[in-house]
Design goal:
10 strands, 4 helices, two-stranded antiparallel sheet, 20% helix, alpha+beta, 215 residues, Alpha-Beta Plaits
Amino acid sequence: MSGGTRRAVVALGSNLGDRAELLRAAVAEIDATAGVSVVAASAPVSSVAVTLEGPDESKPEYLNAVLIADVDLEPLELLDALAAIEQQHGRVRDERWGDRTLDLDIVALGDVELATERLTLPHPRAAERAFVLEPWLQVDPEARLGRAGRVADLLELLPDRTRVVPGAGRLDRPPTARPEPDVEPTPPDPTPTASTSTPTTSTPTTSTPTLGGPA
């Protein structure tokens, strides 16, 4: 397979721990990987956990996002780099489709078509996953998933849609501090207040020095 820079699409997911912070950290670490330059990352969306038996609302919900990056790595080199980042964040692979701190999947890598025991490109189930297609459209409205076609068209075919996370920003941008509410000063009362105090007349007194002390 020839080298050169390719555009990679990577799906991110987490349903354990501080999910938003895990995704944000993963974007930064992917961008810091030699041979990888993140171009854009979506805002996270929320989705129901999917198991071998189907959607399971009893499990913690996932936060999902998608990033696109320019990559100078071969497919398996990129796969190994992503697996190392998953492992750094405590990813355990003892159950297929089980809960996870961090899940990083290569959805597409340029026009590469690949089928090995470790990696299939494009991702064979991406067209069925709104939690991949919807954030992908955030960062690339004209995206195509290989021979499957336009991502926007694929998303329209899915009955299940993800939910936008309220207040969530793009993962490739620093979080924005919530602005303090504007508090307008209370205007002074224009009506003068009449004084009710009665003036008093003071009578001068003569002080007598105390013996034995200073006068």
